[in-house]
Write a structure and sequence with these properties.
The chain is mainly alpha-helical. Helix content is 57%, strand content 8%. It has a three-stranded parallel sheet with strand order 1-2-3. The two termini are 14 Å apart.
Length: 163
Amino acid sequence: MYLDMNGVIHNCSHGAGTDVNTRMTEDEMMSKVFAYLDHLFRMTRPNKMLYMAIDGVAPRAKMNQQRSRRFRSAAEAAKDREEARARGEPEPEGEPFDSNCITPGTEFMARLTEHLKFYVRKKQTEDPLWAKVTVILSGHEVRGEGEHKIMEHIRWARTQPDW
């Protein structure tokens, strides 16, 4: 099974993003990622391999596009908070999870990659279904987008004699 982790990470982090009064901590977001991975694993039941690819450093043009999208997202979030305040909605406690940190090279992505490595080791030790599966995690420190890393691995695997 090939899994582009950015879809998983963004879906789990943006779940609370529809309501400006909802807060999610980093730990809660990571727990949601692990729960969603469990769900996907149970649904698909891979028996040979699980390849998880997180976007790495992107080409310069894509970085510029992402930067402008992040600035627009931050401006929209500030506008939404102001509108909620104007409607008299109470200010939620705690810091909101900033999904802009889901970017290669950030401290958050380094922590997430380490948590994912630990999670995989734990699951392979404790869960018999995970124990028989080879798990490959291509983290944010490996260049390229997740989809491209997956295709690169498929092309490489097809050249192997046991394909």
